[in-house]
């Protein structure tokens, strides 16, 4: 499904023994062993206190320059703001760990949104709907839906945007602290943006594919397949912070997930089960925001198995094909417009 790799293409993350995050990979000769190891690795950042000590004090941008690890645009802007604020030369107070601060903020934001939704917004929406129509029925349902869109959706998008920035801060801080070398800036900026755009589209299409699989007429099979899809997607989300900073292309990232699907299924299973406990998309998103940082931290400590004796399953084949079709159609459209 993927084109043959050229001489300049990057090795699979789990094949490259020089990469710091994948040294000393264990070997798994069975699907169950890899699945079990994935589950254990997903909690690796919680099992020992030494892991958290290794993640502390990650906010210094000078450490980025010293270690050769590029910092994000957001970090550069923050550094410039500090320089222009006139605090140069003053003795800075010791800062708390950026990771700990972002984790606490993420938990407070998402847990607060869940409580706000159930204790304030939903009761208020139901009360307003009843006051407007004084009756239960189709009209009341329409008003409730409109109020949900008006009040809940802005809160949903706000939490999603904040989570994106905070997750990036956590991943960047871990990269700085663990001194994981990156190759992302050896690529052209346009190539990086193209890969990021393609990755976003493929992941969105795969999310739709997950919902379609959940609509299969066989309840047990559809539920199992939906959980498997969501687990693989969450694993891809978590490992992408590391892989993209190492310059691993989208096709290679997907190939790793599909070749080692038992491991990555186990790695994302816990979060998939937690988010599946509710039918509300908003509540599920908040639960994701609370626990996903743990997966990000665990992905930097994980040791995916180096032995792949399982048959690869092309879970992403449909989503990738649709993405390629859409991109080709856009290219043809632009060619017609500008030719």
Summarize it.
This protein has one domain (33-79, 95-338).
Itemize the secondary structure elements and their pairings.
Elements: H1 31-42, H2 44-47, H3 49-54, H4 61-67, H5 73-84, H6 98-133, H7 138-178, H8 189-213, H9 219-245, H10 250-259, H11 261-275, H12 281-301, H13 317-338
Low-confidence runs of at least 5 consecutive residues: 1-11, 16-24, 57-74, 86-96
Enumerate how many helices there are, as a single number: 13
Number of strands: 0
Radius of gyration: 22 Å
Mean pLDDT: 74
Give a description of the structure:
Belongs to the EI24 family. This is Etoposide-induced protein 2.4. The protein has 13 helices and no strands. By secondary structure, the protein is mainly alpha-helical. The protein has one domain. Helix 8 (189-213) crosses helix 13. The longest helix is centred in the middle third of the chain and has 41 residues, at 138-178. The two termini are 32 Å apart. Residues 1-11, 16-24, 57-74 and 86-96 have low confidence and may be disordered.
Key phrases:
single chain; 339 residues; mainly alpha; disordered N terminus; transmembrane helix
